[in-house]
Amino acid sequence: MFDAIQAARADAILGLMDAFRNDANPDKVNLTVGVYKDETGGTPVLKSVKVAEAKLLEGESSKGYLPIGGLGEFCDLTQDLYFGNGHEVVSSGRAATFQTPGGTGALRVAADFIHQNFPTASIWCSTPTWPNHPKVFTAAGVNVEHYPYFAADSHGVNIEGMLDAIKAAPVGDVICLHACCHNPTGADPSAEQWGQIADAVYARGLLPFLDFAYLGFGDGIDSDRSALIEFARPGAELLVASSYSKNFGLYRERVGALTVVTADAASAKTVASQVKATIRTNYSNPPSHGASIVREILVDQVLRQQWDGELSEMRERINGMRKLFTQTMAERLPDRDFSFIERQRGMFSYSGLTADQVDTLRQKFSIYIVRDGRINVAGINPGNVGPLCDAMSSVLGAG
Ligand code: LMR
Q: What residues contact 224, with CB distance under 8 A and at least 6 apart?
């Protein structure tokens, strides 16, 4: 039976990890997968995580199963972190949170839930979006549609195109929105535009589904959650997929959460029972380690402060690299304007490079970039920015 099976295409992002690993060039540069890197190009374990892990090792008394929805305390702390302490959505009991294996696990559980409970609903994804969004939703049997998002000329958000698409989408559909640090473009709506988007989404009767993988990587925790707060209006319903991969550096521990906000506490209980049924047939219950680390850090004032500092450090380094890259490109190609890189937020920017230019960078210079032109700004450091900008300007100059 297996002889008839054809090879799948390599993943657009994770597939490049192997190619990079096998490249023998000592000066190779990796700007592909969304993983934070420090000045030396490494992805160290956060110090706060190391302390929390030591405490866990000491204090853990059982390896018994977690509940289907995960660690209760982790779920409560997730609600506080994302909505802010004392938010009505939390105090009213109309939010139900489930610990999931990473943000992708949350997306898949939500997609299964949507397919089972709203079988005719489509999910609308931004153009462009993270390439795994449509794949995860399609794999769960949900039809995927697309709304315009990126304005190539301004390197910002095409707000008119987006609002027009929202106003024309079928009532009862779901719209997937990136809560901050849009992946792949780095272009986020302004606070005022988020208000317009939420008005349009609710006026049209769509269910907002916020993918929130980069809290803390934009401008800081408070300001990064402003889109979510905009959507958490009195009585409003929404879904939130969140991830601790980036902000706690817990990539391989697979720790994330799905939060469902319903109109009232009674409805939250009913919906929770359905989400749990979905989880049970998917992975039964989540793994403990990553979520226990997050719990340990968020309940301990000292550790939490340390983590806050480490998160700020990561964000500030990336923003510093945005500045340095923009300045260096301005020296190399003074006629071209790269200031949009400095305005964009999060790990990614849409460089504007074509797939052919990306291929040339890989083949000639061992510089690895996702073929849609997305660069992981965290992969830039003072040591590689010069050769990177030389190579990019030679490729762009030739184009
Ligand atoms: C990315 O976009 O590079 C990250 O979210 C990692 C992934 O799973 O694709």
A: 179, 180, 181, 214, 215, 216, 217, 218
In whole angstroms, give the CA distance from residue 158 to residue 28: 35
Q: Ligand 1 atom 1: the closest Cα is on which residue?
A: 34
Q: What share of the chain is helix, strand, coil (3-state, %, to 5)?
A: 50, 15, 40
For residues 295 and 75, the answer to whether their CB atoms sit within 8 Å is: no
For the entire predicted model, the pTM comes to 0.96
pLDDT at 271 over 60: yes
The ligand 1 atom at the shortest distance from the C-alpha of residue 14 is 9
- Annotation marks residue 194 as catalytic: no
Cβ within 8 Å of residue 296, ≥6 positions away: 52, 55, 56, 303
CA distance 341 to 319: 9
| Given the residues 112, 188, 246, 307, the one annotated as active site | 246
Q: Check 130, 173, 194, 224 and give the catalytic one.
A: 130
Going by pLDDT thresholds of 50, 70 and 90, the confidence category of residue 398 is low
Which residue CA neighbors atom 5 of ligand 1 most closely?
34
Q: What is the dihedral of CA 271, 273, 276, 278, to 10 degrees?
A: -70
Output the ligand 1 site: residues, CB below 6 A. Answer: 13-14, 33-34, 130, 132, 183
Does 246 qualify as catalytic in the annotation? yes
Residue nearest to atom 4 of ligand 1 (CA): 34
All structural domains of the chain, each given as residue ranges with its CATH number in brackets, are: 10-44+316-398 (3.90.1150.10), 65-299 (3.40.640.10)
100-114: pLDDT as tens digits: 999 999 999 999 999
Going by C-alpha positions, the residue among 178, 297, 153, 291 that lies closest to residue 228 is: 178
Q: Cα–chain-centroid distance for residue 286?
A: 20
Residue for token digits 């799948």?
8
Question: Do the bridges between strand 29-30 and strand 367-368 make them parallel or antiparallel, or are there none, so unpaired?
Answer: parallel
Distance CA 386, CA 350 (A): 19
